[in-house]
Structure prediction request, 446 residues.
Amino acid sequence: MRFAEFTPFDLVLLAQGLGVTIGLFLVTSLIGLLVGVLWGVVRFYRVPILMQLVTFVSEILKNSPVLVQLFLVFFGFPAFFHLNVTPVQAAIVTLSANTAAFVYVIAVSSIESIGRDQIEAARVFGLSRWQVLRLVIAPQAAAFSIGPLTALLVNQLQVTSLISVIGVMDLAKIGATLNLRTLKPFVVWTAVGILYYLTAKLVATLGARLERRLRAHSAFRCL
Amino acid sequence: MRLDLTILVPHLGFLAEGALLTLEACVLALAGSVALGMLVAVARTSASKWANRLAFVYVDLFRNIPFIVQLFFFYYGLPEIGIYIDAFATGVVALSIAGGAYASDAIRAGILAIDNGILEAAEVSGLSRRVTFTHIVLPIALRTSVRPLGSVLINMILTSSVLSTITLNELTGNARIVASDTFRPFEVYVVLLVVYAALTYLVSLGITLLHRRLNRDLQGQVS
Prediction:
């Protein structure tokens, strides 16, 4: 039992795990945002077959456990398509797709939140559909969607912990390793929990700040 | 490279066993989380400052820490303090506590939506505060929060897949075994994805019916 006790190096391990978690979270959120918004645009233009496909895929992704999606990508894809998939690649693909599915819903509802009269007025003024989307809809939809998006991202941060199951050395996996070595579950999981909690709070705070900025134009001005 | 679903036929019974265990865990955990959610919602809407704060801390913590961390905390931690329960009981407890945080928000919203006039009428009629709460506030709050509670249940079904990580052989756990027995992970997980999506779809249909039935006298106001 030489290494059974906690060592200062464990803090480095925890920091590494946190770094992996945050890094993957940022990358997958970014890809998810881009893909989700792209799907939303597909729906805005009512592209025939693509639109139904996107809706179907997003429904399936929203209504099935992320863990099963991870297993499908990590165990299923290599066996079926004869690919080499590393745990990190599987994690990025799955989490991005999952985030995209939820972003798609937010994008659709925030595009629909803008009154038809605005769009019609803009079209009458001779703006193209793309210009309407870019100049009229996008700024308002961004302000509208930032609240739900923040909630989604806080949730997705917690979902990243599942990738520890397929062997990515994220915060949860480091926790499991430390737990096995020291056999002090309360200390280890409390520390890991606090780190996740603080990160979630950070995301929520940043989201709230951004929302205030974007909504400044419609905020109540004191008389 | 051929999708051959017939290889799953001999394993259907085994998968059904797992599905049954998933449902069992979810039904028990739903009962637990609604009970816990009611208590916490009462605390959060009560006049007592301390109860209020304590309830808020509970909800905040358990919503912002990943479920897998909570699960490991209980699974490895409980034996440490001399509580020996099996994986199923641990899973149900963890799901109830995590679900309780979400359920309490749903029920709290239901309580806050009650018209003040109803409470004043109860007071004028001479009902005690306890009777007012158990016979008037709670029934109204519960039936208006059927739909949000339903989404808590759906989330719980999806989250219950994580229980496979603590050796509980529910639907996902059994599917992992089938995948490693047949060497056909792709087929297994694709089917699993569809099964979960179908399951949650059925549950959401059932909730819509229940919601409509319970609120049939309020058509037009709610729904």
The interface with chain B takes residues 59-60, 63-69, 71-72, 75-77, 79-82, 154, 157-162, 164-165, 172, 175-176, 179, 185-186, 189-190, 192-193, 196-197, 200-201 of chain A (CB under 8 Å). The radius of gyration of chain A is 21 Å.
